[in-house]
Structures are given as structure tokens and as C-alpha cells.
Specification:
single chain, 75% helix
Length: 214
């Protein structure tokens, strides 16, 4: 690994551990064991370094989220499938706790890291919209295009589910047992699905079905 790559990796570690405010040339130099001026032989300025380090952190987050949502064995059709998905999410939250903590702590931060996290969450939301709409259309036989108002409704429901995942990850970090966290997440996903279906069906003047939630 070249010196520039080492500097960026160390900067990414600082972002993951302590956030944007902790990322300074002094801190990077101290961790590598070089002078502060040596850092600037390999980067233009701290904005460039923050952006490069943020891309690494955000790429890791995206990979973790996509590995779960795009898993070939993901099953959203039955409660048992959602329960399995919830267990996998909780396992990922434990295995990659730092990823979820960075998302939680810095998603509203200014700068490259905050922008990258928000872009990642937007991508996760948009992927959830595709999944939700596909399942709803398959289950309830709706084939017409959705209006912009209904598309906005979908965004709201998907954003709430993303927020639920972040909340459960926070509870897991605070000491909630894996089994309880998985059960809570399962209930949040199912109730999110019920609310989504009820909202769309009502707005379209269609019958609101009874959906098993336990």
C-alpha cells in the first residue's frame, strides 16, 4: 500500500470511529507516525482527504445494506421469510455494528460523509420502494401506473422502514439481546408493510385486506 492509500485508509478509520470533527491532518499524521506536513505531500487538502475517506466508509455501508436487501434467498412473501430477514439484519447489525453506528451518528452531518450517508439511505429507500411495490402488485393484482402522489406515499413508508432499521440497530448496540431485536424488527417491518398496503389501497378506493402480523 502506498503512502497516499495509507493516509486515506487511516482517515476512513477516524471517520468510522470518531466522526468528521475528529478528521484532522494532525490526527492522521499521529496515527501513521509522520509529520503533519508529510500528509500534504500526498493530498491536496483536507477536503480532498475527507471526500476520499468518506467514499470508503459509504461504500462499506452500501455493500452491507445491499447484501441483505438483494440476497437471492430474501423472502418478503411470508411471515417466516420476514422473520428470517430480520434475523439476518440483526446479525449484520452485530457483525458490522460500526457501519450502523456511523449511519446513525453522522447521517445529518455536513460535508462528504453526511452527503454520502444520505445518498446511501436514499438508495436503500428506493430499493425498498421497488420491493414493496412489487410485492403489493403481485399480492393484490394492481397493474396501473402510480400517480406522483402515490409515489410520494411510497417514499414516506420506505423511509419509515429505513428509520426503523436504524432504531433497532441503536437498541442492539445498547444491549438489547439479538433475539429480542430480531423480533422487534420483524414486527416493525410487518406493521410497516400493513400500513403501506392499507394506505395505497385506501387512496385507490380499493378494499383494505386483513393481514397477519404476529
Amino acid at each position: 500500500m502506498g503512502r497516499r492509500d495509507e493516509i486515506i485508509e487511516v482517515a476512513a478509520t477516524i471517520l468510522r470511529e470518531d466522526g468528521p470533527a475528529a478528521l484532522t491532518s494532525v490526527e492522521v499524521a499521529a496515527r501513521i507516525g509522520v509529520t503533519q506536513s508529510a500528509i500534504y505531500r500526498h493530498i491536496v487538502d483536507m477536503d480532498e482527504l475527507a471526500a476520499a475517506a468518506s467514499r470508503i466508509v459509504v461504500s462499506q455501508m452500501t455493500a452491507v445494506l445491499n447484501s441483505i436487501l438483494l440476497a437471492p434467498d430474501a423472502d418478503f412473501d411470508e411471515l417466516s421469510g420476514i422473520a428470517d430477514l430480520s434475523r439476518k439484519l440483526v446479525h449484520a447489525m452485530g457483525s458490522d455494528a460500526q457501519v450502523f453506528e456511523v449511519i446513525d451518528r453522522w447521517r445529518f452531518a455536513e460535508g462528504a460523509l453526511g452527503d454520502g450517508i444520505r445518498d446511501t439511505l436514499t438508495s436503500a429507500r428506493d430499493l425498498l420502494i421497488v420491493i414493496l411495490e412489487r410485492e403489493w402488485r403481485d399480492e393484490y393484482g394492481y397493474t396501473d401506473p402510480l400517480t406522483s402522489d402515490l409515489t410520494a406515499v411510497q417514499r414516506s413508508h420506505a423511509e419509515m422502514i429505513v428509520d426503523d432499521v436504524i432504531t433497532v440497530a441503536r437498541l442492539l448496540r445498547s444491549g438489547t439481546p439479538d433475539r429480542d431485536a430480531a423480533r422487534l424488527l420483524q414486527l416493525r417491518i410487518v406493521t410497516g408493510w400493513v400500513a403501506y398496503v392499507a394506505d395505497l389501497q385506501t387512496r385507490l378506493g380499493r378494499e383494505v385486506p386483513e393481514i397477519e402480523v404476529a
